Structures are given as structure tokens and as C-alpha cells.
Amino acid sequence: MPAAALAWLVVGFVAWLLESTDVANRIWLVGLIVLGMPVVLQTVRQAVRGQFATDLVAMLAVVVAVVLVRPLAGLVVVLMQTGGEALDEYAEGRASAAVRALEEDAPRIAHRLRGVDETEVGDLPVEAVEAGDLLLVRPGEMVPCDGIVVDGFSHVDTSRLTGEPLPLEAQDGVTLLSGSLNLESALTIRATAVAGESQYARIVELVRSAQASKAPLQRLADRYAVWFTPITLFVCALAFAASRDWDRVLAVLVVATPCPLILATPVAIIGGVNRAARAHVVVRTGGAMEQLAAARVAIFDKTGTLTVGTPEVSRVVSLGAMPEQEILRLAAAVENHSGHLLGRSIVSAAGTAGIPLANADQVIEDAGRGVRGEVAGRIVSVGARSFVATGARESEAASANGVREPGLRAFVVVDGKWEGYIEFADKLRDGLPTFFRQLRQLGITRTLLLSGDSTSHTMAVAKEVGIADARGELLPGDKVAVVNELVNAGERVLMVGDGTNDAPALSAANVGIALAAHGGGITAEAADVVILTDDVTRVADMIRLSRRTLRIARQSIRVGLGLSALAMVVAALGYITPVVGAALQEALDVAVILNALRTSR
Fold first, then answer.
1. What is the distance of C-alpha 136 from the center of its chain?
2. Among 327-331, 378-382, 474-478, 583-587, where is mean pLDDT lowest?
């Protein structure tokens, strides 16, 4: 549309240069009618819905230009109007594909056990699963619907749902949620809910409803148009009453066409978006800049957002005479042959401690439970209590039986003796206390920590980083409820997260920020701002950038409207013709654009 308006102007200008004034006017008039009609119709539709914004003055200028056969001035207005809309659309970016991405990732096929002994496997669509069906979940497959484990042992990745990186031990009686990923061994589960009522389907619905219920953002330009448009119409009325000259009315409308309103905000936002991109931050919508600048409440997920997101060795505990360093050395030797997440953490901890890796022979791994091997003639078992107990002497087991505190740990048995255990924890990111002080200095009046982890652990992390309000053991729907409560109370809320379980809350917040250094997936799709580096402190940088962007946009608008108001008075007195007014407006537009582009620096 802007290109078409510009092309028509150029063709008409060529005809004018060839001294074909009548031909030029006819070309411009046809172009004005064809290209101006959508502007008029769109504004009328908005007026019917009770929306009177920046488009009203532009529409009146186009209509009056057609009636008075002043096509050149009208085409300039159309060019600015459609060009501003194109810039707005570019700044807004593409629509989020969050729901579609979630639905594409959903499990499609379930393996139902049937036959007399329920060993025969039949594949069927997940929609056909009924509560009570026995289902086989193979390694590497997603749990198709909520269910209870009735046979098998494995570890299950629930990070998509709870955000927690530590795998869940799946054994008889454990409840699994749809969307969890089975890591190692086959499991048999009894379905407790159909797929459409399971946890993964609820996440899809939460994202969909959060996006649908999000109130439309009133553009910055429209807030200024609320008072500028009536003033323009009042000046037009005075000019006509004093002169009975419709050319004066058109001149007033042309110089008052709020190109500073139409252009300043999208140009400034595009500059801010480009500036953010150079810092490896993707701002998906122009409105996100406005919302981020206005945010006063910040909500954070814990795991992967404030923490590193992968379990690391937190301490090694000796249960006997063997030193902690020797326990770690022997454990790392056998775990070096394992691909398990915790095994890699043990090997990494040994390397960090400067412990050289010993050779291990005859290594046997029980997937998901533990690993056993021979190190310099000593039999070393590392893993779950139930696994290492099979190689331990009964009389020695009592030394480890007292270890019952909550937490994730791997026990170490050497030559049948319980020597100790290795504990794992998720490490906090560096610089968080300073980061939260910066947020308070930037005007964030309240911070919250929401997590699927235990309440006690969540509270401990919150205390360490300086967050007063912390809530644990939350499912995705619980996080959305907290966000909605704050938004409905009139708070401007930003939400920061990194996992699939955060996607609904990111969609529900005024502005959602996703950490997506390792891909992001659905989380990045649901968010308005995507940080491509593994650095949550970029949130403070983005708040600063968004406020600078909006400050420059407002400056451009105010200066532009002030000059337009001055030109309106001169035009109303008859000293500016419509064509001259269009030229002045073009000069004003260039000045506004150049000032707004400062946001890219």
C-alpha cells in the first residue's frame, strides 16, 4: 500500500514535469480514490466500534481532498497513513504460534496392552485412550496421558511441566503426567484421565485462553490522539466560519494529519528492537516495548531462570573412614562410562576438583538406577540406594539407613561397604542479588518467585536472592492464576521463565520474557521478549532500553504535534495552501523519523 501510493505520486509527478497538469491531476485523483478508500473504510469501521484514534483526521483529509479535487495533498496523507501502518505491523512482528507449536509437540500415539495376559501391544490414537487402559511407554517416548505406574522402573523428565531438571524416579504407584518424557526403561501405566483432560492438554488450553483474554494494547499514538483530534476539528470549524474557504479547511487537515503520531512510535520501537537484537534479545512485538517500560511487578520462575537448570554436585559425604575426595574419584571412574545426567555431573565435579580420572573395568550399568565397575581391583557401585544395596553387606547397610532427608543423592558402595554418598543441587546464577537491586532501582516495586519445586527449597532460594514473595509446588495453571490475579488488580506484570510449564503464564502476563539460550521452543513462542543468551540479568537491560525507546517516542510525538499545532494556526489564517501544507508535513515527518531513530544507537 505505501509503495502503491508512492508509485502513483511518482507517475503523476512525471506527467507534471512533462507539462501535462491535467493528466497529472487525473492520475493523482484516481490514485487517491483507489488508495484512500481502504483508509476511509477502516476508519469508519473503527468509528462504528467506538474507536476514534489517529486515523480520523487522516480520513477527513482524504475525503476533503477528493471533494475539492486536490489529489496531491490527499495522496501525501495516504502515503503517510499507510506507511505508518506498515511500520506498525513490522514493529509488531509475526503473530505468536504458541498454541500451534504446543499441539504439534503433543503425543499422538499410545501403545495399549491387550489380550488375556495383557502383553500384546496395539497402537491407537491418544484420543482413543480411556481411563483404566494399560499403556506401554517405551524409552524416549512421551507419556500420552495422566496415569499411575503399575510396572517397571525408569527416570522420567518432567521439566516440560514442572521446570525441574532433576528426573523423577518412576516406579510402582508413582503418578505421571502427560507430557513427561520417559528416559531409560519401559514403563506400564494405567491411564487415569483421557488425553483431552490430561496435564499437557490443560497447558495447551491455558496458553490459548491466556492469549485470547489478553486486553488489546492501546497504542501510544492513540492516547495522544484523544485530545489532538478534537482540537484539530475545532480549528477547522473556526477556519471555515471565518473564511468560508474549504481550501483552508483542507490545509488545516493536511498539516494536522498526525504523521508524528503515526510514525514516531513505530520508528522508535523498530530502532529499539534493532538495538535489542544486537544485544541478542528478540522483541517479538512493538507493544512489548510499551508494556515492558510500564512494568512494576516482576515474576520469576526458579529452575533454569534463577538457577543454572542442571544438577551439580553440591557435596560429598563420607559415612566411614574413606575421604570425600577418594569417594568422588572412585565414583567418577565408573560414572565416566555412563551417559546419565547425574553421572556426567559427578565426572565434571571430579575434573573441577582436579582429580584425575582412574580407569574402570567390567562396567555394568542398570539404566536409570546405577552403575558398577572395578577400579584398581576394587568393586565400586554408584547409584540409587536400592541398586547399590544389592552389592553391600547387610551389616554395613545401617550406616546409610539414617540418610532420609529430602534431596537427590547417589550412594557409593566400595567392596560391599557403604562408604558415602554424593548430593546434587541446582546452582544459583551469579550476580542475582545485584540484579534484583537494579530492578528495584528501575522502579520494579514487587518481585515474586513461582516454582514447581518444593515450597521449602523455593523459599530458601528466594531468601538468598532477596525476593520476599515465594510460592512452591505450583503447576502451570497455578502460575497463571497468580499472574491473572495481579493483572486483574491493575498491576503491570512481567513474567520471566524458560520452560514449557512457564508458557501459559508468559502468555497471561502483560509482557512475557523467555530465556532461550538452548532453543526455547514453545516458551519462546509464547513470550513477547526472547533473551538468546543464558543471562537473566538482561531483563534489567531490556527495561532500561524500553524506557529510553518510549521516552524518545514521546519526545518525537510532542515536538511533532507542537509544530503541527503551530502550522494549523498559520493554515487557518490562510497563509498555507494544501500542497504547501503537504510539503511542510513531509519535512516534519523527516525530522520526527530522524529523532526516533536515535533509539537504535
1. 34
2. 583-587
Q: For the chain, how big is the Rg over CA atoms in Å?
A: 33
Domain boundaries, the chain: 108-141+146-192, 279-307+428-544, 309-427
Q: Which residue has the cell 546452582?
A: 427
User: Is 366 among the catalytic positions?
Assistant: no
Contacts of 213 by beta carbon, 8 Å cutoff, 6+ apart:
508
Closest CA to 415 of 396, 401, 398: 396
Per residue in 444-502, pLDDT (tens digit) is: 999 999 988 778 778 888 888 888 899 988 888 889 999 999 999 999 999 998 877 78
By CB neighbour count within 10 A (0-12 exposed, 13-18 middle, 19+ buried), where does 403 fall? middle
- Could you confirm whether domain 279-307+428-544 is CATH 3.40.50.1000? yes
Largest Cα span, the chain: 110
Q: How far apart are CA 580 and CA 583, in angstroms?
A: 5
Show the beta-strand stretches assigned E in 245-340: 281-283, 297-301, 307-318
More confident residue, 575 or 195: 575
pLDDT value at 9 more than 50: no
Please report the pLDDT score of residue 213 as a whole number: 47
Catalytic pick among 55, 88, 133, 301: 301
Can you state the angle between helices 476-488 and 199-213, rounded to 10 degrees? Answer: 20
